[in-house]
Amino acid sequence: MEPSPFERPRRRLMSDMNVVPYIDVMLVLVVIFMVTAPMLTQGLKVELPEAAADTINIDSEEPVVITVKADGGYWLKQGSKADKRLSLQDMIQALHAVEQAQPKVQILLNADTRVDYGKVVKLMAALQQAGLTRVGLLTDSPEP
């Protein structure tokens, strides 16, 4: 029997998976993450002084960051907790509590360039009198 000229030949079903839509979705997600990642950083805006200094080796898992803003206010950042504005006495008490929980805690001082020098010295003296000696100063690297 001859095949009829009016009959179409049967096609085989394609069993391959089309991955193009998945690649499109992946590329869109990559772009979204690239745009949103810089917005996820949190912190207080300070202008750090520039200094050519060696980097600090941090021994503790999560250092405690004390920020002195341009208005002279003291802020405490502990791990992933939000920044808290504290008076100098409350700051020392909070740091003593942290030191009791983590004896090798590293304290980093982050001060704005416009802060009065006396504010920073007052903080450093209070930390020293309280027996908190593992203190580091944060700076920006100078532009080459």
From TrEMBL:
Entry's Gene Ontology BP terms: cell division; protein transport
Membrane topology summary: Single-pass membrane protein
One GO MF term attached to the UniProt entry: transmembrane transporter activity
InterPro entries named among the record's database cross-references: ExbD, Tol-Pal_TolR
UniProt KW Transmembrane keyword: yes
Subcellular location per the Swiss-Prot or TrEMBL entry: Cell inner membrane; Cell membrane
Domain of life: Bacteria
Protein's UniProt keywords contain Cell cycle: yes
Keywords: Cell cycle, Cell division, Cell inner membrane, Cell membrane, Membrane, Transmembrane, Transmembrane helix
GO cellular-component term (any): plasma membrane
Annotated TM spans: 20-40
NCBIfam families recorded: tolR (TIGR02801)
Oligomeric form and interacting partners: The Tol-Pal system is composed of five core proteins: the inner membrane proteins TolA, TolQ and TolR, the periplasmic protein TolB and the outer membrane protein Pal. They form a network linking the inner and outer membranes and the peptidoglycan layer.
Family from the record: Belongs to the ExbD/TolR family.
HAMAP family linked: TolR
Chain's role: Part of the Tol-Pal system, which plays a role in outer membrane invagination during cell division and is important for maintaining outer membrane integrity.
Protein name per its UniProtKB record: Tol-Pal system protein TolR
